[in-house]
Amino acid sequence: MNKRIIILGAGESGTGAAVLAKVKGFDVFVSDMSLIKDHYKEILNRYNIEWEEGKHTPELILNADEVVKSPGIPEKAPIIQALREKNIPIISEIEFAGRYTKAKMVCITGSNGKTTTTLLTYHILKNAGLNVGLAGNVGKSLALQVATENYDYYVIELSSFQLDNMYDFKANIAILLNITPDHLDRYEYNMQNYIDAKFRITRNQTHDDVFIYWNDDPIINKELKQHPLKARLFPFAEEKEDGVKAYKENHNIIIDAPDESFTITEDDLSLPGRHNLFNSMAASISAKVLDIKKEDIRAALSDFQGVEHRLEKVARIRGVQYINDSKATNVNSCWYALESMRTPVVLILGGKDKGNDYTEIERLVKNKVKAIICLGVDNRKLHTFFDGKIPTITDASSMKEAVNKAYELSQPGDTVLLSPCCASFDLFKSYEDRGDQFKECVRNL
Predict the structure, then answer these.
(1) b or e along 171-201 (b: 16 or more beta carbons within 10 Å of the residue's beta carbon)?
(2) Residues 16 and 131 placed together within one structural domain of the fold
(3) Residue 72 annotated as binding?
(4) What are the backbone angles phi and psi of residue 336, rounded to the nearest 5°?
(5) pTM of the predicted structure, to 2 decimals
(6) I need a surface site. Which of 66, 74, 250, 324 has the fewest CB within 10 A?
(7) The CATH number of the domain where 384 resides is what?
(8) Cα(12)–Cα(23) distance, rounded to whole angstroms?
């Protein structure tokens, strides 16, 4: 009898896993607690895959041989608890897809910078002529590509949620950019649980594989001392340190790759800011490990277009620059944004708080921010922390109101920065929706 594979969640990840399971000849059923988007229904129907929406029917799910769970479904969901009681294996889409491809995997995680680094790495590899796919948190689902394409390499952005249910999957090149508190609501407010999830990116790595990481991250260094890895280590840092493979010297970035060293001037990078320096280092090391020519790496770093909703310049109106950083869904992301600001800032903050500690940005706020606009359903925590620390703090209950207030509070030479520190689900469908609304409101000023 065919093995029964149940897919929970029918978004990009779940639909891709369902198609791969069908192509491999399994008995497949898809169940989504929410309504399934028409685009994904059309794909499921095209492959004759049975599905249900708006519910999980236990009789159709608890007879599974294996379950592929979408990353957004938390462990405490009742259907997951029921599956655990029956000892039915639960895996991620990435784990499932990894079984059916021999492609080399370049995997990227971190609390911040992973989308930029993933797209930058993909841009370098693709421009150098490699047969490469883009997957994970960006691009198409890995499983769908494994089912329908034939790539030699994949560049994959992995969130902690995707890493949670990976067991036998292996990254040939693993990149860990940084670890700062995020998603603690999903990890029982225990930082170590979140750290353990991030370190799963190194799981199953051997002496043939490579681990690239930020050398100055205290959490990463502590973990490496406690759990030495088999993989070859390629750390990067802001300044030259023992064993570091990429660093900055004067206004140059030095990449000490396995076979040759090369230099990129800081002015040649298309992406500004200290955090993008690190993202560029990580992408460059991974490209060099794959024997991509230094001139190809230089060219790709200088013509790369940035990521939407990440320090995205929207418009300059009446001498004020408006910047969309809606992707900043945690405090550390906002820290990077503020750190790169060179003018007085009107900061739009707020949303669904994930257990945030705002002390990390306190100094930067005091030094750079003239006004805060709290955009959320419940702004009490922001007021408790920031009241009295800056000249002006006010509330807004819609993006239009927030942008109009920012317009009134700003003067020529200022920057209005949307960098919310929080998830978007209180007032918006997603951080993309939040950023799109911001851009539309700014353009309508």
Answers:
(1) bbbbbbbbbbbbbbebbeeeeeebbbbbbbb
(2) no
(3) no
(4) -60, -40
(5) 0.77
(6) 250
(7) 3.90.190.20
(8) 17
**What total number of domains does the chain contain?**
3
Going from the C-alpha of 172 to that of each of 65, 74, 97, 231, the distances in angstroms are: 29, 28, 15, 9
Q: Is residue 57 marked as binding?
A: no
Assess whether 34 and 112 both reside in one domain: no
Q: 265 among the known binding-site residues?
A: no
pLDDT in tens, 372-420: 999 998 999 999 999 999 999 999 999 999 999 999 999 999 999 999 9
Read off the amino acid at residue 120.
Answer: L
**CATH value at residue 23:** 3.40.50.720
115 is in an annotated binding site: yes
Q: For 181-236, what is each residue's pLDDT tens digit?
A: 665 666 566 677 888 888 889 999 999 999 999 999 888 998 888 888 999 999 99
Encode 314-343: b = buried (16+ Cβ within 10 Å), e = exposed. Answer: beeeeebbbbbbbbbbbbbbbbbbbebbee
CA-nearest of 317, 354, 316, 314 to 333 is 354
Residue at a domain's end among 278, 303, 328: 303
Distance separating alpha carbons of residues 119 and 139, to the nearest angstrom: 9
Which of 88, 121, 150 delimits the end of a domain? Answer: 88
Give yes or no: residues 15 and 80 share one domain: yes
Domain that holds residue 368: 312-443
